[in-house]
Backbone:
């Protein structure tokens, strides 16, 4: 039997390719709000981050998160993502 396909995604912070399940998804919903997507299934444009604060900082500093979502990201949303990443065990 052939091995099962594992979807791969690229972190917008460190640009490493990892399995989709190991990354955290941030989504811009069709309504225009940016929020964390814990299920990975919400409709909208998504960007993936490693569950590491350094990747979030790199994505924000280089404006790569905003470019990937094609939408500005507010400080409140960044704080929500930062607090959610701090809760994830490394």
Residues:
């Amino acid at each position: 039997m052939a091995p099962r396909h594992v979807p791969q995604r690229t972190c917008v912070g460190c640009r490493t390719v990892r399995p989709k399940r190991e990354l955290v998804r941030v989504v811009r919903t069709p309504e225009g709000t940016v929020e964390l997507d814990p299920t990975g299934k919400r409709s909208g444009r998504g960007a993936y981050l490693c569950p590491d604060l350094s990747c979030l900082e790199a994505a924000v500093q280089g404006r790569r998160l905003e470019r990937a979502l094609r939408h500005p990201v507010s400080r409140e949303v960044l704080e929500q993502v930062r607090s959610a990443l701090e809760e994830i065990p490394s």
In short: The first helix runs from residue 53 to 61. The chain has one domain: 8-87. The domain at 8-87 is CATH 3.30.1230.10 (Hypothetical Cytosolic Protein; Chain: A;).
